[in-house]
Amino acid sequence: MLQLIKDLSRRKGVNVVLSSHILRDVEETCSSVVMLARGKVVRQGAISELKKAVANLFEVRIKGEGEEQERFAFAIRDLGASWKPLDDGLMEVTLTNGLGSEAVFRAAQEAQVQVRHLTRRIPSLEQIFARAVGLDPEPE
């Protein structure tokens, strides 16, 4: 069914309104989205633009565990950013106040740890929705 919707939209130029709570399917099928929560619009626009709006989200791995990660966490928080652990020793770092990726290196230098991996993390529609409704709040 999703393939038919894609085909109608892309090959025939037909606009289709798809209503679904399965955001992974929406992301793979649609180019624009209107997200509703409790009957109110919480986000809308081109999916590519909604994903670009979260340009301050990074995936980071530092050398070491435990104490090293703790030092890095304190240093990143001191810069006004936040982090949360992911799988395989990765961390999701959310930078605020106009901070760029150089802040990750500044925090690593302060914590005396090495950055082994740094890449921009592109959120899924599920993550964008969760932030929009406060289930995964952005740092203040």
In a nutshell, what does this entry contain?
This protein is of the alpha+beta class and 140 residues long.
Overall shape: it is elongated
Uncertain regions: pLDDT < 50 for 5+ in a row?
none
The CATH class assignment of the largest domain is: Alpha Beta
Instruction: Indicate the proportion of strand residues.
Output: 15-25%
How many β-strand stretches? 6
CATH H-level name of the largest domain... which superfamily? ACT-like. Chain A, domain 2
N/C terminus separation:
41 Å
Main beta sheet strand tally, sense and closure:
4 strands, antiparallel
> From the helix content, strand content and strand pairing, which structural class follows?
alpha+beta
Number of domains: 2
Radius of gyration: 18 Å
Order of helices and strands: HHEEHEHEEHEH
Tell me the strand order in the biggest sheet: 4-5-3-6
Number of helices: 6
Average pLDDT rating: 86
| Helical content (DSSP H or I, runs of 4+) | 25-40%
* CATH architecture assignment of the largest domain: 2-Layer Sandwich
What is the CATH T-level topology of the largest domain? Alpha-Beta Plaits
